[in-house]
Amino acid sequence: MNDIVVEIRNVTKKMGGKTIIDNLSFSVERGEIYGFLGPNGAGKTTTIRMMVGLMSMNAGEIIIEGHNVATDRAKAMMHVGAIVENPELYKFMTGRQNLIHFARMSGRTISEERIQEIVKLVDLDQALDKKVKNYSLGMRQRLGIAQALLHHPSILILDEPTNGLDPAGIRELRDYLRRLSREENISILVSSHLLSEIELMCDRVLIIQNGQYVGERLLDGSKEGSQAEELQSIQLQVETMEEIQQALQDSAWSITSAEGNRVTLSLPHHDIPQLIEHLVKQGVKLYEVRKVTPTLEDTFLQMTKGGRIQ
C-alpha cells in the first residue's frame, strides 16, 4: 500500500487573469493529520476545491490514491471524504435518517454495521435518533464527519472545521480527529485559522502564501535526518548572572541572550549534556533547563513575514 495518499504536483490556477495558485506541490501521507495554513487570500480554499473536484486547474496534477482528479474524478473521489465550509445536513431529519440518506446518495453499498461503527467512533450513538435541529454545533460537525467517513475514504478534507465551536467543542473535535487517524488509519487534511489548535492537532503543517509553497514543519518534535549538528536553543535559570558568566569563560559556549537570572545559549544538540556537566562542575546552581522551541505562530509569522491568517 502506497504511503502517499494525496499528491499535488505543480498545480497552477488562474482566475480573471490573476494567478491564485502558483506551481504548488505537496503530499499527504497515510494516517497523518496534515495542517494547511496561509494568510488571508493565500489560496487554501481554492486548493481544497480543486482537490475535491469542484474547481478545475490550469496546470499540474492532483493524484488521490493513484487516480488523477482531472481525468479520473469518479475513482479519485471514491477515496475522499470532505466538509468544505459547513456540513450539508437536513435539520428536520434525525441523525440516523441523514446518514441513511447520504449512504444511498453515495452510490455504494454501506451496511448498517458500518453506520453503527462510524456513529460510535464520533460518539453520537445516544443522539442518533434525535432530530438534527436539536443538535449542538459540535454534534452537527461530528455528524458531518460521520457522513464523510461512511464510504471508507483514504483522506478526510476539512475546511475550517472548528468555526463557531466553543473551546469544549474544539477540544472534542480534536480528540475525535486524532482517534480517526489512529483507528481508521485515515489521512486528515485540516485548513484552519486557529494556529494553536493546529499545533495541538496536526503531525505536520504546510504554509502557503500568494498561492505558493512557503514551507513545511513537523509538529511531533522529530526532525528529518540527524539532530547531532543542529543548533538548539536552551534556556537556563541560574542563581546569579555572574557565576554563569565566569563558568563559561574560555569555554566553547557563549550566552546569546539574558534577562534577569535566565540565560539562553545556542549550541549543537549533542553538546547539551556536556554543557550541563561543565556548569555543575564549576559550581553553577541550575534551577531549570529547558529547550526553547519556536511555536507554530513564530514559524508562521517568520515564513509569511507577518501575514494574517484568514
From TrEMBL:
InterPro entries: AAA+_ATPase, ABC_transporter-like_ATP-bd, ABC_transporter-like_CS, P-loop_NTPase. The keyword Protease does not apply. Keywords: ATP-binding, Nucleotide-binding, Transport. Residues 6-235 form the ABC transporter domain. The keyword Transport applies. One of its GO terms (molecular function) is ATP hydrolysis activity. SMART domains: AAA (SM00382). It comes from the Bacteria. Belongs to the ABC transporter superfamily. This is ABC-2 type transport system ATP-binding protein. The lineage of its organism: Bacteria, Bacillati, Bacillota, Bacilli, Bacillales.
